[in-house]
Amino acid sequence: MSTKTHTRRVPTRGRRATTSPGRPTRRTTAPTTGKAGVRTRAPRIPFVLLVMCLMGGALISLLVLRSVVAQEAYAITSLQSQNKELSQREQQLQREVAHLETSERIAREAEEMGMRQGEEPLFLDPDNGEVTGGTE
Question: Is residue 117 part of a domain?
Answer without folding.
Answer: no
